Amino acid sequence: MIRTTVPLTALALACSAPEANSQDDHSSEAPTSSAAAAAAPPVRPPEATETSSAVSSPEADGVVQLHWQIDSAEDNFGFYLERNGPFDPLVCPTCHLPHLREPDPHLGEWVRVNQRLIPGVGTTSEVHRFDYEDTGLVRGKDYLYNLYEVSMDGRDVLKGTVPAHCRTEEEQAFRERRANWTEILADTDDTGETVTSPQISGEWVTFFYPRERTRTVHLIGDWMGWEENPLPLERVPDTFWLMVDVPLEGLPDSIEHLYLVGDPGSIEVHLDPGNPTQAHSESRGEIVSVFGLSEAN
Fold first, then answer.
1. Same fold, 9-167 and 170-296
2. How far is 86 from 109, CA to CA, in rounded Å?
């Protein structure tokens, strides 16, 4: 009999061709485990977050790192994992970034990940944490994982299904920039400082706009034909700001820009509140915000 009275969690790292192996030899495969006394919450479905690891090749070199824990167990012999995928990622139509898909047991074929059983902890009332690293995955793809718990008498129980997205190098760089800006903007919210917009960071020009509660905000500029290719701004977590990154490569020395604020039928055109430099635009026929790239560098 198995009794696991803790939530299972998973952390998806970067993203391999699946390896099928359905045989369970119950031999030892050393996990990382630690213990500490804790209260036992009820079992609930696993959760997943994302990160990425530095790797050298764009394909079949990704890694997914799964983490889970048990608060208490009875006759826990071990664990094994199944993988489903790769799948093409689900891309958000607003921010154009991959979003984790909902677990679906009917998608694709489930294959065994670990050839040897991940050793369990027997009967215990202490917290034990486990890590397993699945390697050789395709970056930029989605995967699903099933975690099974095996009892001393050989019975197995599905503990939950975890979605994971394997980030590309570009996606990882975006996440790192976003995390950096989150920290900086959170500090300005606390101090009341003004945020200068736009700002150059590495190979990107980042535009900021105060977050609107219910209205969407798009960036338009002379280098992209004004309203021909508006770029949606995305909320920066834990701040009162929206932002969007524009590649620095190919931009003219001086760029003109404005913001479209609102939804179709009620759109307002705003200057950049973080940029005091303004001028009359010949291509636009009105006053616009102006940013000199050479002066900023």
1. yes
2. 10
Q: What CATH number labels 170-296? A: 2.60.40.10
Buried b (16+ CB within 10 A) or exposed e, 191-200: eeeebebbbe
In angstroms, rounded to a whole number, what is the distance separating the alpha carbons of residues 102 and 111? 19
E strands, 125-277, are: 126-137, 142-151, 156-165, 199-201, 204-210, 217-221, 231-232, 234-235, 241-247, 254-261, 268-270
Q: Are 272 and 197 in contact (CB under 8 A)?
A: yes
**Cβ distance 136 to 18 under 8 Å?**
no
Is the full-model pTM beyond 0.70? no
Q: pLDDT band at 17, cuts 50/70/90?
A: very low
Cβ proximity of 152 and 75 under 8 Å? yes
% of the chain exceeding 90 in pLDDT = 32
The helix/strand/coil state of 87 is strand
**What residues contact residue 179 under an 8 Å CB cut-off, 6+ apart?**
none
Query: What pLDDT, on the 0 to 100 scale, is given for residue 106?
Result: 67
Instruction: Report domain extents, the chain.
Output: 9-167, 170-296
Burial of residue 158 (CB within 10 Å: 0-12, 13-18, 19+) is exposed
Q: Could you tell me which CATH number the domain at 9-167 has?
A: 2.60.40.10
Sign of the C-alpha dihedral, residues 150, 151, 156, 161?
A: negative
CA geometry: angle at 223 spanning 221 and 228, to 5°? 65
Angle CA(13)–CA(15)–CA(19) in degrees, nearest 5?
A: 115
Question: How many CB atoms are located within 10 Å of the residue 222 CB?
Answer: 18
Interatomic CA distance for residues 245 and 174, integer angstroms = 9
- C-alpha to C-alpha distance for 208 and 234, rounded to whole angstroms: 9
| Exposure on the CB side of residue 20, measured as CA atoms within 13 A | 6
